[in-house]
Give the backbone structure.
Amino acid sequence: NAGVTQTPKFQVLKTGQSMTLQCAQDMNHEYMSWYRQDPGMGLRLIHYSVGAGITDQGEVPNGYNVSRSTTEDFPLRLLSAAPSQTSVYFCASSRTGFQGSGYTFGSGTRLTVV
Amino acid sequence: AQSVTQLGSHVSVSEGALVLLRCNYSSSVPPYLFWYVQYPNQGLQLLLKYTSAATLVKGINGFEAEFKKSETSFHLTKPSAHMSDAAEYFCAVSDRNSGNTPLVFGKGTRLSVIA
């Protein structure tokens, strides 16, 4: 089925470990974003990309890296996990740009850092 | 920076009653505005969007929102609540003049529907 696929769905990490959250879309969307969702905080933008090879920081980029080597994939890397990174992470994509068109969201990755 | 404020983190209505979820934006220039819904343990789905002329926007599942420039508001309404409407609702905004920067989301309003 066409859409945004996030893996894994659940993950528990120990403080200091690193990992990569995967995001893939098969809709040939140019625009992709990573958000984190925390209770009472809504969704906050971590990083985004407007095309392969182009990425930029959002509101809360510290502790995260991204790259966009292909149109389809936009992985999010946690360099050294901290308890403050416990959250639900959503990847989203858009065909025609962030303005004026809606996003397609993945189903999320629930991350716990202990 | 563009922002939206959602008034009320939790709204509770009876089944069949009017649903009103409030959203105010901060820009002096009318932005693009969106409402999304999130059902438990799922991602977000687009309900409706305001991008240009029509100030009353109709969305899916019987929801609609009216853009009011004088009040800098984009409140979401539904005439008659259904149990299946119980979810979290997010207002989001994008500045028309900011280029292709991603949406900024409000903090969300959780809607409970009482039988």
User: Anything to note?
Assistant: Chain A touches chain B at residues 4, 31, 33, 35, 40-45, 48, 50, 58, 90, 92, 97-103, 105-108 (CB under 8 Å). Chain A has a mean pLDDT of 92. The first strand of chain A starts at residue 4 and ends at 7. Chain A has no helices and eleven strands.
